[in-house]
Amino acid sequence: MRHLIQTTDLDKDEINIILNSAKNYLKDDVAQTLKGKMAITIFFENSTRTLSSFEIALKRLGASVVRLDVSKSSTAKGESISDTAANLNAMKPNAIIIRHKNAGAGDHLSKYVSCPIINGGDGAHAHPTQALLDLFTIQNHFKTTLEGKRIAIIGDIKNSRVANSNIELLGRYGMKITLVAPPHFLPKTDLPTTSDITSIIDSVDVLMSLRTQIERHDTQTYGSLKDYAHNFCITKELIRDKNIIILHPGPVNRNIDIEDEVLKDSRCKVLEQVTNGVAVRMAVMEHFILNH
């Protein structure tokens, strides 16, 4: 049984197939390939983009979607996540999409089901479909090999599942990655790091800003968000007229992660990422459900 828990669950050939399918879906070249199929979404953490994106993707392909309201489910009464998974599996879905605050939750669930588990984000561990849509967005912009292209990932990298998945995936496609963050936001890594965003701005092709993961901090690790923004917010003054693109997985902390004026800039691909996310998740769900 194949599951998508992290980006390493897919080889490059599979990734290329998925992203080629997503290109067709961007052109509205859609067939009801999942008609008669049913998927369950179970999100133990709040989500706007990812949850809606998966549900829209499935419905565009003709599948039905059952959203489990966690606040009203038996998990609120103390049912274990493994029992929840076994009971959902007994309803014979064709896939289960999960988000959970604990790293490894999707992998744990996979032991109790007979359908693909798709990880919609687990703790600070992985967010594979976000990395796929980020790769897709970068490829669509450059329309050439990404080998040697340079990306700076900026912000709360230590607590970011998006960063983890992108570091693995974009590195596999030959991108040169620099991590930009205050020292306490950096993980142990062999990648180049800096806490001075101005030192890399002239040498990168892509800036990927991340949200400060306040909910994952045991204690406040900076004086204020204003102090953080002074050093790490992407501003018009910083990017000037440079030939770069700007990404963010959302939700954006305006004027902390990215300045309002930059969000309006054509180089900012935040809304394009959202559009691409539906197409990529269509291709992912089709790949895993039809090849089950």
TrEMBL record:
The entry's protein name is Aspartate carbamoyltransferase
For L-aspartate, which residues are the binding ones? K77, R161, R211
Catalyzed reactions per annotation: carbamoyl phosphate + L-aspartate = N-carbamoyl-L-aspartate + phosphate + H(+)
Q: Which residues bind carbamoyl phosphate?
A: R49, T50, R99, H127, Q130, G250, P251
GO BP annotations, alphabetical order: 'de novo' pyrimidine nucleobase biosynthetic process; 'de novo' UMP biosynthetic process; amino acid metabolic process
- Which is one Gene Ontology cellular component term of this protein? cytosol
* Residue ranges of every copy of the Aspartate/ornithine carbamoyltransferase Asp/Orn-binding domain listed in the record: 147-287
Q: Which GO terms describe its molecular function?
A: amino acid binding; aspartate carbamoyltransferase activity
- Tree of life domain: Bacteria
Domain Aspartate/ornithine carbamoyltransferase carbamoyl-P binding, chain residue ranges per copy:
2-139
Identify the keywords attached in UniProt to this record, alphabetized.
Answer: Pyrimidine biosynthesis, Transferase
The annotated pathway is: Pyrimidine metabolism; UMP biosynthesis via de novo pathway; (S)-dihydroorotate from bicarbonate: step 2/3
Q: What does this protein do?
A: Catalyzes the condensation of carbamoyl phosphate and aspartate to form carbamoyl aspartate and inorganic phosphate, the committed step in the de novo pyrimidine nucleotide biosynthesis pathway.
State the family it belongs to. Belongs to the aspartate/ornithine carbamoyltransferase superfamily. ATCase family.
What does the record note on quaternary structure?
Heterododecamer (2C3:3R2) of six catalytic PyrB chains organized as two trimers (C3), and six regulatory PyrI chains organized as three dimers (R2).
Q: Broadest EC class? A: transferase
State which Enzyme Commission number(s) the record gives. Answer: 2.1.3.2
